[in-house]
Amino acid sequence: MSAEEVAHHWETTPETGLSSATVKKRQHRFGRNRLRDVSQRSWVTIAIRQFSDLMILILLAAALVSGFVGEMHDTIAIMVIVILNALIGGVQEYRAERAIAALHLMVTAEAKVLRDGRVRLIDTVDLVPGDVVFLEAGMITPADLRLLESAELQVDEAALTGESVAVEKHSNTLEEAEKLLPGDKSNMTFKGTQVTRGRATGVVVATGMDTELGRIAALLEQKEAVKTPLQQRLARFGTRLALFVLAICGVIFVAGILRGEPLILMFLTAVSLAVAAIPEALPAVATISLAFGARKMSRHQALIRHLPSVETLGSVTVICSDKTGTLTENRMRMEAIYRNEQLFNLDAESLPQPLEQAERLWQAVALSNDVVGTDAEKGMLGEPTELALFKAAEAAGYHKQTLQQCLPRVAELPFDAERKRMTTVHRDKDGYIAYTKGAPEQVIPRCDSQDEGVLNREKILEQAEQLAAKGYRVLAIACRSWNKTPEKWDPERHEQSLVFLGLAVLIDPPREEAYAAVSECLTAGITPVMITGDHPSTALAIAKRLGITDRLGGVVSGQELHTLSANELSRRLDDVRVFARVSPEQK
Description:
By secondary structure, the protein is α+β, with helices and mostly antiparallel strands.
């Protein structure tokens, strides 16, 4: 649908929004805008769960029989152990439940909404389909929105798709949208994603469990309850023990009767033997051991909801991990600069001398971005790539706020998906200077010279392709000086005859602790597997750095995964270490 058709469908307008009466009706119809948490359990449910284990049921039966035949000491001893076991496990699970509930309460947010013709700030849980919502840089999208209008909007959808690079959004109509994955629906923003640049107005089209994030939550609800290896072993042991004890007791009971012993005496003897043979302390010993393990895990900020899950960690053979934000820092970093046919790494404490002299390059890196809020209190807001450029310039001694005083911005040609480049124009002492950055294939052909040396377009583009194949994001940076500023800046006319300054090489770097984690997994015989929405080349580059895999054959793309049958996938699992460009449903 077009933006106007969507607004008409939800009986709303961008000028007035919904009325209070309509909001109340829709809140009753659609419910609150939050994800359903089916995992929360009451203390009664937790208490009952402690008595569901087979060994515990056998002990309770033994206690009942002991009391029936007059062996009250055995009954009391068994019940004390059973209750102690339930208390330890119940308290641990109850504390974990309360801690998880507290984490949910910490997540509070407000949305800027148009209602009854007025702009209001409301809790995101009160949103309903048809609400008109305003988005700005730094905001978290409160629900699934169809954009009505957009101005240079970019959204970080890593929480939904795994893509570490912000996505350009617009309000245009998409053809065959029903066939597109969420990451390809560029006229929508989704619940839980963050606005990194620009602003927009959108109409809520889905809330709560009807959102894309809610669909993922629903998939998690469908998981089958699987017993841990310890629970399975204890269940098998309990069953075998019960059958063995009953068999022995039966043999002794029958043998005694055949010898002419009194019936009551042989029954009491068989029951006493059964009670004595059952290891009533075993569940308590296992529970106490697991409780110590859970306590140790809590010191590492890990919550254990069910005690047997502690033991499960010791049985792990494969760990599947997301890339963005888990194995990597979920922030872009400028790692190198290609200039004058040389690649200079920025890891060193001091800049290489050729980069120290590249004043115009660093001015372009610092000024040709839209990062805002540079003070320590407010932090910095902006698209991840621009934040990386901004920080690299500051590390090189070129501060945007200082440079803007002598090189104020007077005009700009914003980035768009078709041009794949942006230009900012600044006044300097000799007139005006325009800084352009963007995709190498869009910027390099528009360059006539370079800052130093002779321009070799083919070699620069070849270098950019090689870096991209290694998983880097590459931006070309150029400039052009003007004696006077035209009344209107035109991309096709004014982004020509540029001076090439260099290539900025960026990557979402691995977390420092991820190297050790992968190494420890491999040492322990555990196979780490990366599952990500990123491009295969990017995923492979990170996987090589971390030591997960060192060959292209260990990578399967989401498109290839879609074509594999269950048997074919099973045959390949021993060799696959990276699943790349996969959708949330495939994950």
